[in-house]
Amino acid sequence: MKTTIALLLAGAAAAPMAMAQDAAPITEFRIGLLGGENAQDRLASNECLKGYAEEALGVPVSLFAPADYNGVIQGLLGGTLDMAWLGASSYAAVYVDNPDAVEPVLVKTNLDGSFTYHSIGIARADSGVASLADMEGKRFGFGDPNSTSGYLIPLVEIPAQGYSMVPGEYFGDVVFTGGHEQTILAVANGDVDAGVTWADGLGDWAEGYNSGALRKAADAGLVDMNDLVEIWRSEPIPEGPVVLRKDLPAEVKATMTDLVRNLVTTDQECAYGVAAGETAGFSPVTHDAYETIIAIREAEIAAN
Fold first, then answer.
1. Where along the chain do its domains lie?
2. Is the dihedral of CA 283, 120, 207, 218 positive or negative?
3. Which residues lie across from 244 on neighbouring strands?
4. 0.70 surpassed by pTM
5. What is the average per-residue pLDDT within 106-123?
6. How many other CB atoms are there within 10 angstroms of residue 99's CB atom?
């Protein structure tokens, strides 16, 4: 490690931890990685976090990168995962199913100090599609049913702007691609005429903005941003929380919260990978920040 874990935790001991009396000591720690890019890249981006966590907790740490968002959601609900960085909609899905499963502790902060991002509609620059008004009869791609920016927010905001999300009513078809990276590639390859993904909306378009799925795709060389255009942008969305399994020992929760909160000052390169781009760090957050998203999620469930 570039910096000792003692510095990372500002003096916290790195030896195997004396756990709180009200919870059994842990023998392992399992981190779920939400979908959005291919599993290999997700694992590589978070390998540094795994190493820091092992040193801090004194137990083996595993990274899990399921094929879809639901894999992480079910892992948290079933107690087979201890930590994850969720989107707001995925947190809402966990909370609606079991309010006692996890607790939000941190949220990613943008370089301007904000805690929000956007659902960004994209199309090929040579497609002739410059806005949703150009999408009549065309194929629109969405990421995952449990994605906030890749489905839930567009499901609310796009119809409110006069464009039905029912396949065939305005768009020729509405399809799921499987995730953010898949949506970006589907647009770039012409498999869909447009799609939605996530970005903080700050910085340069040519770099994929400062953080988000577009930045990760541009960094990986999967797309040239000059070949794409932005055709739609949602209202600001609250960044999803880093959550911890609620019944973990208190010292484990405190240690992992401190580790992630201090990561940007300890190892900026590691923080860049974990946060999907440029970040000012992670800041404390509580459940209250997600009550609106939870209400939207509950309304969607009731409607179906």
1. 5-111+240-303, 116-237
2. positive
3. 83, 103
4. yes
5. 96
6. 12
Superfamily of 116-237 according to CATH: Periplasmic binding protein-like II (3.40.190.10)
**Residue 263 in tokens:** 């990561």
Q: What is the CATH number of domain 5-111+240-303?
A: 3.40.190.10
Amino acid at 283: S
Select from 113, 127, 74 the least CA-distant residue to 236: 113
User: For residues 153 and 137, what is the distance between their CA atoms, to the nearest angstrom?
Assistant: 21
Rg (CA), the chain: 19
Beta bridge partners of 85: 242
Region of 253 on the Ramachandran plot (φ > 0 left; ψ -120 to 50 alpha; else beta): alpha
The proportion of the chain whose per-residue pLDDT surpasses 90, expressed as a percent, equals: 88
CA torsion sign, 289 to 94 to 100 to 60?
A: negative
Q: Give the separation between CA 231 and CA 121, rounded to whole angstroms.
A: 5
